[in-house]
Amino acid sequence: VRGVRVRKRGPVVTWLLLLVTLGIYGLFHWYFMNREMRDVSAALGSPFENKPGLSVLALFPGGFIVVPAIWTWVTTARRARDLRDLALDGRPGERPSVPLAVLLSFLYGLNHPYLQASLNATYDLVLIPPAP
Question: For residue 131, how many other CB atoms are within 10 A of its CB?
Fold first, then answer.
C-alpha cells in the first residue's frame, strides 16, 4: 500500500489462530496491526505516532493490571477508525466502531477479526483510486 508492505489476513483465520495458540498469536497480531497502521498512516501523509511494541506490552504483561489492556484496545480501535478516515479522504463510508471493538475484546479476542476485517477493507480503499 503506497510503498508500505501490509498483509491482508483472513479475519476467521486470525481468530482461529488466536484460539489454537491460547492467545499467543494475538500478541504478534496486535504488534503487526499497529505497525501496519503506523506505516500506512505515514505513507498517507498523516503519521500516527504509536509504538507497536508498547501496544503489545499493554496487553501482556499490562493486561494483569487491566487498565493498560483496555487502553490499548481503545487506542488501536481509534487508529483503525482514523486510518479509515484517511483512506476515505472525505468521502462517505463505513467506519469501524471503537465501542464495539472494545466490547468484542472481552469476548475472547473477537476484536482481532473485527479490526483485521476493517483494516483489510481500508487497504483495499487505499489500493483502489477514488472514482472521478
Answer: 5
- Dihedrals φ, ψ of 128, to 5°? -95, 115
Number of H helices, E strands in the chain: 6, 0
Query: Of 78, 76, 102, 88, nearest to 131 (Cα)?
Result: 88
Q: Is 42 exposed, middle or buried (0-12, 13-18, 19+ CB in 10 A)?
A: middle
Phi and psi based region of residue 38 (left: phi greater than 0; alpha: psi -120 to 50; beta: remaining): alpha
pLDDT, tens only, 40-78 = 999 888 899 999 999 999 999 988 899 999 999 999 999
Q: What is the residue type of 84?
A: R
Structural contact between residues 86 and 41, judged by C-beta atoms closer than 8 angstroms: yes
In whole angstroms, how far apart are CA 81 and each of 64, 106, 132?
27, 19, 24
Other C-beta atoms closer than 10 Å to the C-beta of 8 total 15
